[in-house]
Known about the structure:
With about 500 residues, the chain is an all-beta fold. Helices cover about 0% and strands about 40% of the residues. The protein folds into 7 domains: about 15-60, Complement Module, domain 1; about 65-120, Complement Module, domain 1; about 130-180, Complement Module, domain 1, CATH 2.10.70.10; about 185-240, Complement Module, domain 1 (Ribbon), CATH 2.10.70; about 245-305, Complement Module, domain 1 (Ribbon), CATH 2.10.70; about 365-425, Complement Module, domain 1 (Ribbon); about 430-495, Ribbon (Complement Module, domain 1).
Amino acid sequence: FSELRCGPPPSIRHGIVSHELDSYQHGEEVTYNCAEGFGIDGPALIKCVGGKWSQPPTCMETTCKPPYIPNGFYSPQRIKHRADDEITYGCKEGFYPATQETVVKCTSTGWIPAPRCGLKPCDFPQIKNGRLHNEERYRPYFPVPVGKRFHYLCNSGFVTASRRYWGFIHCTARGWRPAVPCVRQCVFHKVENGESPYRQIPYSQGESAKVKCYPGYSLPNGQDTVTCTENGWSPQLKCIRVKTCSKNDIEIENGFLSESDHTYALNRKTHYRCKQGYVTANGETSGTITCLQNGWSAQPSCIKSCDRPIFENAGTKNNSTWFKLNDEIDYECHIGYDNKYKHTKGSITCTYDGWSDIPSCYDKVGPCSTGKCGPPPPIDNGDITSFPLPIYAPSSSVEYQCKYLYQLQGNKKITCRNGEWSEPPKCLHPCVISEEIMERHNITLRWIENQKLYIKSGDYAEFQCKSGYRQTNTRPPLRTLCIDGHIDFPSCSIYMINSKDE
């Protein structure tokens, strides 16, 4: 064997030999090293035996699987990580990295250092308005692990959440609990210039109590509740004399007050309603005025109003639904029609007796036309009251009627003139008021117990807020009009005060 020699060692992919020669004697050895990013698989050293080399190793690419980090996360995320790849990891709330560095590297032995998240310990608790029991004794042992608890005391005037002067504070994964160990305790007792309870009632920080002041007195800014804060009652349990307004100072024409009180405190509102045919300046049937420092905010105003007129063979660009006294509407006749003054345009005025004229236009051909007409035109949700004929003589008329609950708009009678019928009326849809709709808006019908109702177009429906709710906005109002199947439903929102009964 000693005379048999070996040639150069076999080459391997991604690997090199430590010292390569052309020829090696029996018993000589060589060592393989892998390129960066690859690890050796098998013995790195091979030997020349009897003119042949022993089995060489292979170089395998160094990779790492995605790390498993309970209660943690990392980036970037890949299916496979190669040697020297780096990731940055972090921990969820309540946990912290177990390594000093949060950047770890993929190596041939895995992730270095190994990413791991542990429970975050608790530092010494800073208890506002309280302290730990024997805190100087325990201070050197902080921080402490999750699960530890300590006995604590609250300062005078403060209590725990269970309304005691002492309790336990716990170290949890989310920090110290309770988060606010000591809260203010307020005592509801004597109310200056107001009704006081028969006994002292304790309230905790954040709770509210209702205050009843004597007539002519009020809490600041017209409030009627006080709230227990860290600094005590806000505002203080003191009712101050306030400005009042008298019912005798109210002058109202064409309307009446809805309330019987004679004296009103500052910022209090009183409601009034207008008589039939009159509305407020905003077009409502009712309004409010407020008691201010200088007296009532305004005098109630009920002005004469007119509903939108019905146009016959005419139209207008004015889309208003109501009009106040002396308002005018300009109208224009349809093509082929003029008004009784032989004009294609006209105007009417809202007066105390209603509209000054009827906005009607007539066929220019007149009743002397000899043209005959076919069957009257059909209308949705309505029909003529007589049996239809195939042909109608000039100047013949028919009348329409609507289905039950549908409201006829326009002239119910049409006439055959010059071979054409005058414009037929329309049947306006009724409005459906259902319990489901009212439930969505937190309202109920005010005067009717039935919770499903059909009303005609042009009629009003009056609602009220459900118990414990109040109106969100003043528009749409609680009394609203049905217009061709559509109602603007008012909405109410929940109204709650965190208070205790006396």
